[in-house]
Amino acid sequence: MQTDPSWEDPELLAAVAGGDMGALRLLYDRHAPWLSARLTRRCNNPETVADVLQDTFVALWKGAEGWRGDGEVAAWLWGIAIRRLVSRLRGRREALVLPLEEVAAARAPEPSAEEMLLLGLEYGDVGAALQRLSPEMRAVVQATVLDGLSTREAARLLGIPANTVKTRLHRAKAHLRRNLTEGMA
Amino acid sequence: MKATWHADDALLARYVRGDAGSLDGASLEQHLTRCADCRARIATHVEAAPLAKVWSRVREEVQAPAPSLVERLLTRVGVPAPDALLVAVAPSLRASWLFGLAVTLGFVGLGAAYGGARGLTFFLLVAPLVPVAGVAFAYGPDVDPSYEVGVVVPYPAARLLLLRTAAVLATSLPLVLVAALLLPGMSWTAVTWLLPALAFTALVLAASTWTRPTFAAVSLGIAWACAVGAAALDRDPDSVLDPTRLLVYAATGIVATLVFRIRIHRLIPVGSLS
How far is B10 from chain A (nearest CA, A)? Predict the structure, then answer.
């Protein structure tokens, strides 16, 4: 089977699941640059970023059939990458490795409150409201809502207790809600 | 959902540099997960060399064969991974070799169970040569598929040979020892055969600094078979293990070990002799 550069991501992913290295290469060329840039914004050690990038595509090779076939492949890849980053930052010994199914399940198809928030972030006023949050709260919102991490994972990434993540997120959401409703009024 | 806007190159450049503010950055990130065009354009702002390096690592990891059982076992007990690989690819540690060894020992056991003296002869003929054959087949151009790799890779051949010898002894000696202890009426023979076995192993190691280990092992095997055969014709096969001969084996073993230690640096290209 010959892979074609014109193929969409899901087709390439299916080819990777069938053991096609050429398809993996195409996916790498498409997604490694932005993944690398996005990871670099969360971890300033280039070597760790390179390791995470490697982990991500090796995981993709091994678990391509774990993709459920809906949503964006890019979002799914980011879900893997950010979790690999979390486990790398924690050290290899107690690495938090989530099976890919869980990553897939985390991207539920029905639009949640978070996803509405994301849409608002790209098109609306949520960004401005987000800007007004304190840096600590913004970090929590970024890790949980934007990066799609669980409370526990976000706690590991940010190096703070899980309960702190919960309270900060709670307060941040309250802030955002208040700011947004003020803006609409 | 189609995006209604696209990031301009200035924003992409700032983002990659890490200069985009948290709002622009977060906004762009949400956009990137949905927009293939902007993902493709950001690639021109990201350094290509580190990405190429990561890709070669990914390809290497993805294409590497899974480590064998022996290899995983060795790394588990603390042998460094490259050493474990080189030890594990030794032909004498393959399943086929171990299977052959088990079958041979089974025949020896059967022979011993049926006829006392004949079984003993059979055992004496085979047992001391088992580790020797293992060592000979652990290394060398005749048998090792990774031999050329071993010769051209800057890895000490002596270290490789010793590691593999240790592995061969560790796998074959216990098997033969169990067989010996199961034989009826063996008494001391069940233990004393270890001395010629170790002496022969040392001899093959020493000889491998001059010639191919397989050649040395075959010569030694023929000599040993003649000695055991002669003793059997005298109706006293045990005599190959009488105290004076045991002393000779011990002395031979020590001398061979010393010779091997002195000449160890000559091991490198055995193949160049042929």
Answer: 15
Instruction: State ipTM.
Output: 0.71
Cα–Cα dist B130/B147, whole Å: 22
Q: What is the reported pTM?
A: 0.53
To the nearest whole Å, the CA of A30 is away from the closest chain B CA by 6
Angle, alpha carbons B99-B103-B105 (nearest 5°): 115
Nearest to B27 among A9, A38, A121 (CB): A121
Reply yes or no on whether the pLDDT at A63 is more than 50.
yes
> Is the Cβ pair A122, B31 closer than 8 Å?
yes
Cα–Cα separations (whole angstroms), residue B16 to B13, B41, B45, B104: 5, 12, 7, 67
At a CB cut-off of 8 Å and minimum separation 6, what does A183 contact? A125, A128, A129
Alpha-carbon span A134 to B22, nearest angstrom: 11
Q: How confident is the model at residue A33 (pLDDT cuts 50, 70, 90)?
A: very high
Q: Kindly indicate the confidence band of residue B177, based on its pLDDT and cuts at 50, 70 and 90.
A: confident
Contact B204, B216 (CB under 8 A): yes
> Which tens digits make up the pLDDT trace of B71-97?
777 777 666 666 776 666 666 566 666
Which are the contacts of A50, defined by CB distance < 8 A and separation ≥ 6? B50, B53, B54, B57
Chain B residues with CB under 8 Å of A28 CB are 55, 58
pLDDT at B256: 86
Give me the pLDDT at residue A100, please. Answer: 36
A143's tokens: 């890790």
Task: Kindly write down the DSSP assignment for every residue of B25-75, as one continuous string.
Answer: HHHHHHHHTT-HHHHHHHGGGS-HHHHHHHHHHHHHHHHSPPPPHHHHHHH
> Would you call A67 helix, strand, or coil by DSSP?
coil
Burial of B60 (0-12, 13-18, 19+ CB in 10 A): exposed
